[in-house]
Amino acid sequence: MTAATHSTLFPQVPESPDAVLEGLDPEQREVATALSGPVCVLAGAGTGKTRAITHRIAYGVRAGILQPTTVLAVTFTNRAAGEMRGRLRQLGATGVQARTFHSAALRQLQYFWPKAVGGELPRLVERKVQLVAEAAARCGIKLDRNELRDATSEIEWAKVTQTVPGDYPAAVAKTQRDAPRDPAELSQIYAMYEQLKRDRSVIDFEDVLLLTVGILQDRHDIADHVRSQYQHFVVDEYQDVSPLQQRLLDLWLGDRDTLCVVGDASQTIYSFTGATPDHLLNFRTRHPNATMVKLVRDYRSTPQVVHLANGLLSQARGKAAEHRLELVSQRDKGPAPAYTEYTDEPAEAEGTARRIRELIAAGVPAGEIAVLYRVNSQSEVYEQALADAGVPYQLRGAERFFERAEVREAGMALRGAARAGGNDSLLDQAEGLPSEVRAVLSTKGWTSRPPAGSGAVRDRWESLAALVRLAEDFERAKPGATLSDLVAELDERAAAQHAPTVQGVTLASLHSAKGLEWDAVFLVGLTEGMMPITYAKTDEQVEEERRLLYVGVTRARLHLTLSWALSRSPGGRGGRRATRFLNGLRPGSVALGTRGGTGGGGGIDRGSGTGAGAGGSGPDAAVRRKRGGPVRCRVCGRTLTEAGEMKLMRCEDCPSDMDEALYERLRDWRAGQAKVIGQPAFCVFTDKTLMAIAEAVPATEGELVTIAGVGNRKLTSFGADVLAICAGEAMGEEAGEGEGEA
């Protein structure tokens, strides 16, 4: 499900530091070799950011520049940390710590608590919901299950933003946060929750960070100890850092700048938990001498998928949108995204299951297919539809692979068989490692054919089948490997949480799909009220929903299907509408009132600025070009996906035959027109459009209107002037003023 899926499962460790750099593109190599000072990597979806930073660490370690035990790589999920540890092990960089913020802080807290406070660290409460319920009851406030969940989330948000109970109402007002109930009541619950924890000598996950910050702030000797241990820091998914996590990172660093951060503001989807992209977007402000690297070569998705992803962000607004990255697909062309409208949700689920069966029959593995939805409650109808269709599936969000009971039992059985060697009667008829593993696991429920239906029996079988496939891959990679060798490999993978792939269609929420990828992705339930979700009220909340859909789109490598249902149940009134985010992108739709970020020249190449449908750029134009086939460079023939390149009809680095003098005359004319109409210059024509005109030198209206960025409205307003300038005619200061006002 990750980029590593299509690489060798058991690669050879690179023989030298230089060998670590082999296969990296120029930008990734720049990341890998930038080992001093602050480094900020802006990495778009599918651009190989994990590859770049793990090779950076491995290159530094293998070259003797970084001592492995002094490197701390921090990310946000145990899965991502496990994958990072697995990749570092494959690159020969053992000894590097790759952990989540909470895991790293908890280790330090456990070690230093006796010295800093005395006694044992208080017990950690893994689920705070019950304590929040008791706190609400003591305050005389009754909460149902959903309200209890919301109150718990609010307490978590307050703590990661370092807001104490008494300041919570003011913080809500200041941030314009949409509190789930009266902030004064939530403040009461929050204060009582904290009191209950103190009375019972327990702490929660947020306390782990808060207490670590407190100790490092107050005890300079302990802070110095930590800083002598960790001297180089790498932070993945930096757009998701909360103020509290940033404070901890600052304390780890001290006055040093040996920091590398990686992130993408367009994938900020956790602001409701206190995450903010501001630390990423302001990195150069805090570190003026930072090395900045942009990764935009998308190795994951086809040009068709990338084109849709870029189109989604081209309509975005706000600060994050001003820093969006235009992805450029490095893959061969594939099928266009499919858009499907259904009468009701069961029909949508059945249609999705039917299409999945067709893909599996065509050779796409079930483990390379995902169904992604906005909220977990949407999964039930798809579970039923896939079970009815006889398609295996797995739900994301279950316990970690190596912590499953059947996997632990299988590990013990394999370890026992390895110790027994030839004395185990189970292995008498087995020849070769995979055959031995099948024989051992057959005693734990594995069979050559999967059980019918779904449920716990099927989940258990899928786990065991994943171990069988891992043994087959291991034997192919290491001919002659023994059962003991496989047990050692499993132990190392368990320590790194580097799980094998379970073969089954993945059902997951869009949030939990972050960081994963599949050959085929089905984005379902894309209706107004679900995408964006109904409680997304503010502009920023709506923009976060757009980014969430962008994350979903960029999970697909090859096949992408987007669908919605007009009603919830059969026979219902079909009053639903497809999400507004697809307006102007899906066939037959029109983009209404959308525009890009306000950055203008800040990497965003927009058209008129008065609505995407007004001119020749924006989503409508993208749809028109798409229907006519992919846009190709007129110089080298490469498929173009970046908006600016499509305006020029050539790659940025391909030779240009632009008439420089004509371009400067057009720029001077544009400045005058912008002053006349009282709008920014790019509202007349963007730089890219002027460059395209100066390259094409159109002689007629028909030639001019075919240039991207010149639509009928702009042809009417400015066409005569532009054609006159292209013909070499002199333009007076007052020329075209009437057309400009029109």
Structure, described:
Residues 22-302 form the UvrD-like helicase ATP-binding domain. Pfam families: HRDC, UvrD-helicase, UvrD_C. Residues 330-350, 592-625 are annotated as: Disordered. Its EC number is 5.6.2.4. Residues 303-558 form the UvrD-like helicase C-terminal domain. Helix 6 crosses helix 9, helix 15 runs antiparallel to helix 23 and helix 19 (405-420) runs antiparallel to helix 22 (483-496). This protein folds into five domains: 17-114 and 210-299, Rossmann fold (3-Layer(aba) Sandwich), CATH 3.40.50; 123-200; 329-399 and 503-582, P-loop containing nucleotide triphosphate hydrolases (Rossmann fold, 3-Layer(aba) Sandwich); 401-496, no CATH class; 643-727, HRDC domain (DNA polymerase, domain 1, Orthogonal Bundle). It has 742 residues and is an alpha/beta fold. It is globular and about 95 Å long. The strands form four sheets. Strands 3-2-6-7-1-8 form a six-stranded parallel β-sheet, sandwiched between helices. A six-stranded parallel β-sheet has the order 11-16-15-12-14-13, with helices on one face. Strands 4-5 form a two-stranded parallel sheet. It has 30 helices and 16 strands. The longest helix has 22 residues, at 456-477.
Span between termini: 54 Å
CATH topology category name of the largest domain: Rossmann fold
CATH architecture classification of the largest domain: 3-Layer(aba) Sandwich
The top level CATH class name of the largest domain: Alpha Beta
Number of helices: 30
What structural class results from the helix and strand content?
alpha/beta
Q: Can you give the helix content as a percent range?
A: 40-55%
Shape: globular
What characterizes the major β-sheet?
A: 6 strands, parallel
Q: Roughly what is the average pLDDT, rounded to an integer?
A: 83
Task: Give the low-confidence spans.
Answer: 1-8, 593-629, 733-742
Oligomer status? single chain
* Rg computed from alpha carbons, rounded to a whole number of angstroms: 28 Å
Residue fraction in strands = 5-15%
Domain UvrD-like helicase C-terminal: 303-558
Catalytic activity: ATP + H2O = ADP + phosphate + H(+); Couples ATP hydrolysis with the unwinding of duplex DNA by translocating in the 3'-5' direction
Protein name: ATP-dependent DNA helicase UvrD2
GO cellular component, one term: DNA helicase complex
